[in-house]
Design brief:
Chain B: Pfam families: BPD_transp_1. The structure holds 2 protein chains of 2 kinds. By secondary structure, chain A is of the alpha/beta class. Chain A is built from 17 helices and 8 strands. Chain A is globular, with a radius of gyration of 23 Å. Chain B is mainly alpha-helical. In chain B, strands 1-2 form a two-stranded antiparallel ribbon. In chain B, helix 3 crosses helix 14. Classes of the chains: A alpha/beta, B mainly alpha.
Chain lengths: ~450, ~325
């Protein structure tokens, strides 16, 4: 009979408390020894896991450079990088940073400019990197601070068979109004199937990403060029109302807790007829075991007042300014983001696992097109038509499509998402949500005026 | 989070409160003192280790909580005194999360203790397949918290493909959106499911250590089941109830997985640990997050003390009745 005595119970409690306190100081990597090493800190996404598997066998074998990887979940990785880079502690030479961090990391003087390395490395072929990607990793000073590992935009996915059954045709470049009309018509056309899945889970990287692209194309913006918060402006309100109404009327049940993962489930289980989300979702929908494989059509992100509205996101390699091995760091980046590496992944793990979305050449590769044929062209179009410096109808104070490029945005975006998520749940009106959000945004904007 | 599952036979201990005072000291007996230290010495490394791993980080947290420190703006770090604490107590979101934490902890602990007691009483009887039932009842507690949260969110609550609505649909009932309509209760339910077995285990240990002769005697004197429970079992279970309440409070105050996984802090379900996580990882406000952490520690102490008081006072009444 396993039970606790008072005395025995105390020890684990103490141990747990200690454990909780110690987690903050774990993972102190070693310094450098010799000059044939490079320390890499990266987010634990599947593409990075593949990279770790292949590095020793290929990169280290070719160059003799040992790569020491540290992997963590997204939030933790951001935090660790900011600690190490802020103090220029040189524990890591290379880290995965997204296009959200690059501009202000560069401004803080934490990153090493990579222009000269890229120019010298002819085999890397910097011109092959998609222009919008290059732009989103270039800081205000015009220098390039990171190289993309893979990238994504957003587009609309829909069930071709369901639309056909309802005698509907998806336009080549749909407007949001057209999408809303189609959603209304296909809603409930099969038992338990809703019209469209849209994220409602709070988070700057969850609900706020698709919603901000809708705001952009409806003519709204978070901030004016001179840092006036615009969350209660008519355009922002109209866009948010549109989004909230659409998801409440024809969206998935439980929308306030649905993020990327839940919508992906809904689509694969045949519970949603459409989905507006990341281009990277297509890989899962078209996977060998997916029940909806081959049934999905892809079109560009719906628009209203702009020509395109897809977002832009990339995990990219940045080098710490004080790095002891900048040359080794570049060698590693140049290999990991190369065309050869993409081919290597194709050969070893299959073409659907290729870290795509960063090079033009990926989309002319016959092997890749065979696997990703249905969505690869739409993905390429979405990424190339994204305009990170001009995503809306008015000039912006920072670069960024689905985010505002300031350190405070992660927190602000998440808090605003909480408010709007509550509106999606029907707990408050969109006006109230935006009134509260405007206050939060004003507070942030004050610091920049 | 691991679960303490030390298997040891239960034996009756004296409650700490009634522990005998330290051996009487004779003043001016150096040899005695030397002997005392000789017995203590082997324990010192452990004590020092404990202080280093538990108290020093807490002191560090206290120090950091006095600074205005955003990790994205390292050049602007400065001493801020109690400014962060002011923010914690005046910021609406943080204040709400304190209330949420209290609600969540109190309701989960109370319901788990009550259910745990009922289950323990059932399991205290002999019936066929008791071992199997016990094992099955303990299972939820052995689940990793984040796995349990995922299970509840997707397999049970999800209105599109979850079990609850599937069953309701099959019965032709309504289709509630559990996490949207009753977000906090939904989170609490999953935690109660996880923590009831823990309470049950502790209380079962208590039940099985009851002195059977007294029970027999009471029965011979013509006491009914209810009277035996009320005047013998319950007082005997007092320390076990205290322990369950105390440990439960400490763990559930710190619970992060359920809120993070199920609601992402939406719809007023953000408890303090989740808010601290957001403050630390999203806002990168180290000082503010530390201050909120200190508030959680203080809150835990208050809750635990309060819980113990309540339980103790119940029993003091018992004694006066008796």
């Amino acid at each position: 009979m396993p039970v606790l005595t008072l005395r025995a119970a105390r020890i684990p409690v103490v141990a747990l408390t200690a454990g909780a306190l110690l987690t903050g100081c774990a993972g102190m990597g070693g310094g450098s020894s010799g000059d044939k090493t490079v320390n890499v800190l990266m987010v634990n996404n599947p593409q990075m896991v593949d990279l770790q598997k292949l590095t020793k066998k290929y990169f280290t074998k070719e160059t003799g450079i040992t790569v020491r990887f540290t992997m963590m979940p997204e939030n933790e990785v951001r935090d660790k990088i900011s600690q190490d880079f802020a103090n220029q502690a040189r524990q890591y030479d290379v880290a995965t940073i997204s296009n959200y961090e690059v501009p202000f990391y560069a401004e803080n003087d934490w990153l090493l400019p990579l222009d000269s390395y890229a120019a010298k490395d002819k085999a890397f072929d910097q011109k092959d990197i998609l222009p919008s990607m290059r732009e989103s990793l270039t800081a205000e000073d015009g220098k390039l601070y990171a190289e993309p590992f893979y990238g994504e935009s957003s587009f609309l996915m829909y069930r071709k068979d369901i639309l056909a059954e309802n005698h509907l045709k998806m336009p080549e470049h749909p407007t949001w109004q057209q999408v809303a009309d189609i959603a209304a018509k296909v809603d409930g056309s099969r038992k338990g199937m809703n019209g469209i899945c849209l994220r409602g889970l709070p988070g700057w990287g969850e609900l706020m990403a698709p919603l901000t692209t809708v705001v952009n194309t409806f003519g709204g913006t978070w901030f004016t060029k001179d840092w006036k918060a615009q969350l209660d402006s008519p355009e922002f309100t109209k866009a948010t109302k549109f989004y909230v109404d659409l998801v409440r009327k024809h969206g998935e049940a439980g929308a306030a807790q649905s993020g990327f993962a839940e919508c992906l489930n809904n689509l694969t289980q045949g519970k949603s007829a459409m989905w507006y989300d990341a281009t990277s979702a297509a890989g899962s929908l078209e996977a060998a075991k997916s029940p909806v494989k081959g049934k999905i059509g892809y079109v560009q992100a719906p628009v209203e007042k702009t020509e395109s509205s897809g977002w832009l996101y990339t995990w990219a390699w940045g080098v710490q300014k004080a790095s002891r091995h900048p040359d080794n760091a570049w060698k590693f980046i140049s290999w990991a983001s190369s065309k050869e590496y993409e081919a290597l992944v194709g050969k070893e793990f299959g073409w659907s696992n290729v870290p795509a979305g960063k090079r033009s050449s990926t989309y002319t590769n016959p092997d890749y097109k065979d696997t990703a044929g249905t969505f690869s062209e739409e993905t390429r179009k979405a990424i190339t038509s994204a305009k990170p410096r001009d995503p809306g109808v008015q000039p912006r104070p920072t670069i960024g499509i689905q985010f505002v490029d300031i350190p405070e945005f992660a927190d602000l975006g998440t808090k605003v998402a909480q408010e709007i998520s509550a509106a999606i749940a029907g707990k408050q009106s969109v006006e109230t949500a935006l009134k509260n959000s405007q206050k939060l945004a004003e507070k942030v904007a004050e610091e920049y005026r | 989070m691991s679960n303490p599952t030390t298997a040891v036979p239960v034996h009756d201990e004296r409650p700490p409160a009634a522990a005998a005072p330290a051996a009487a000291k004779r003043p001016g007996a150096p040899r005695n003192r030397a002997r005392e230290w000789a017995t203590r010495a082997p324990l010192l490394p452990a004590l020092i280790f404990l202080i280093v791993v538990t108290q020093l980080p807490f002191v560090a947290t206290l120090v950091i909580s006095l600074f205005d420190w955003n990790s994205f703006r390292p050049d602007r770090r400065e001493f801020a005194g109690l400014e962060n604490y002011k923010t914690v107590l005046s910021d609406e979101a943080l204040r709400d999360s304190i209330v949420t934490t209290v609600l969540l902890t109190a309701s989960v602990v109370i319901v788990s203790v009550v259910l745990g007691l009922l289950l323990a009483l059932l399991l205290d009887r002999k019936f066929r397949g008791r071992g199997l039932v016990r094992t099955m009842l303990i299972a939820p507690f052995l689940l990793v918290p984040v796995a349990s949260a995922l299970l509840w969110k997707h397999a049970l609550y999800n209105p599109e493909y979850g079990l609850f609505n599937g069953v309701l649909n099959w019965l032709g009932g309504p289709q509630p959106e559990w996490l949207t309509d009753t977000p906090l209760i939904a989170v609490e339910a999953s935690l109660i499911w996880q923590w009831t077995p823990f309470m049950m285990l502790i209380l079962l240990a208590g039940l099985q250590s009851r002195p059977l002769e007294t029970m027999e005697a009471a029965r011979l004197d013509g006491a009914g089941n209810w009277q035996i429970f009320r005047y013998l079992t319950l007082p005997h279970l007092r320390r076990y109830l205290e322990l369950g309440t105390l440990l439960g409070s400490i763990y559930i105050v710190q619970n992060f997985d359920a809120v993070f996984t199920m609601t992402r802090g939406g719809l007023d379900t953000a408890n303090l640990p989740y808010t601290i996580y957001e403050t630390f990882y999203n806002a990168h406000e180290y000082g503010l997050a530390s201050a909120a952490g200190v508030v959680v520690v203080i809150g835990t102490i208050i809750i635990a003390t309060f819980a113990l008081r309540v339980v103790s006072s119940l029993f003091r009444e018992e004694v006066s009745h008796a």
